[in-house]
Predict the structure.
Amino acid sequence: MRDSLAVVSEAKNGTVSIYEEIVDALNAINGSHPGFRAVHAKGTVCVGTFTATPEAGSLSRAAHFQGEPVKTTVRFSNASGNPNTSDANPIAGRGMAVKFHLPDGEATDIASVPLPVFMVRDAEDFLAFTKARTPDPETGQPDQEKVMAFLADHPETANALQLGLPKLAPTSSYATSGYNALHAFCLVDADGGKQWGRYEWHPTEGEQYLSDEQREAAGSDYLQEELRERLASGAAGFRLEFRLAADGDSLTDPTEEWKGERQVVALGELTVTDVIEEPTDGPLVFDPINLTDGIEPSDDKILAARSPAYSVSIERRMA
Ligand code: HEM
C-alpha cells in the first residue's frame, strides 16, 4: 500500500500545487471545516463482509476475489464538503467507499459515486469547473454565466450532468443507491490474462428514490439514522459487478459513456452489517489507486489526480 501522504510532502517545493488549489476551491464552495474531509464530509462508517463469485477468481488473482469472505470497512457519505449538509437536499450526491482487508494484512480500496460518468477529464478542468461553481459572495449563488461558459466549452461536462443529475436525487437509504467507480481498471488472472472494465455496486433491494413529499418530510440526517436502524436489525447488501470494456471503449476518459450492451460479470456480494465510529488512531483513507496484485490502474488523468488531491485533504483534516 502506498503512503499517499508522502505525495504531498514530495509536491512541496515552495509553490502551491494544483491539488492544494483544488482543495482551496472546494473549501470556497463548501466552507472550510477543520477536521473534516474537503468533500464527502458527512458520512457513516460501517463494517461488513465481501464474498467473491467463482467468476471473479477467473478474472483476477487478487486475494479478495478468490472466494474466501474478506472483512471490509465501508463509508457511506454525502458529496458535500459541509459536514452539516442536509441529507434531504434535492440534489444530494452520495459516496460509497469500500476497503477490502486482505489476508496478508494489506488492504485495497474502491471509492464510488452514483454518477454514471465523471464530469471532467483532468485536474485542470476539475479546478476550473470548481472555480466556476463558487458562489458569488454577494448573492450566495454561483455565477450562472461562468457555469454556462464552462459547459459550452466542455460538452462532456454538460453530458455528465444531464446523465448524472437524476442519480443524485435523494434515495430512501444509502443502501438503495447504486454507486459507480467510473475509471477503467484491469483485472489480471493467474496466468497474466488481462480484462479491462468498470466496477459498479448495485443495491440488492434495487435503487429507490424519494418522492417530493417524502423528501420534504425527511429530516436532515435521515440517511445516517436509517442506516443505523437498518443495521441494528439486519444488513445492507450490494452486488459488485464488472462491466467489460468493448473494442473502442476509452480506458482513460471517465467522462465517456460506454454506450450500448456490454458483458457484465458479477464479482461478489457485500454484506454491510454494523455501524462503527470512525477510527481515531490515524486517518481513514480510501485511495482509488490503493490496488493489489491482480488489479491494475489505467492512465486516466482523473485517477492520477485523486490520490494527491486526497492527500492534501487528509493532511489538513489531520492537522
Ligand atoms: C479530480 C477529481 C477528484 C477530486 C479532486 C476529488 C477530491 C476528493 C477529496 C479531496 C476527498 C476527501 C479525501 C479525504 O479527506 O479522505 C474525496 C473523497 C471522496 N471522493 Fe473524490 N475526488 C475526485 C474524483 C472522484 C471520483 C471520480 C470519485 C468516484 C468514482 C470520487 C469519490 C469519492 C468518495 C466516495 C470520497 C469519500 C471517501 C471517504 O468516504 O473517505 N471522487 N474526493
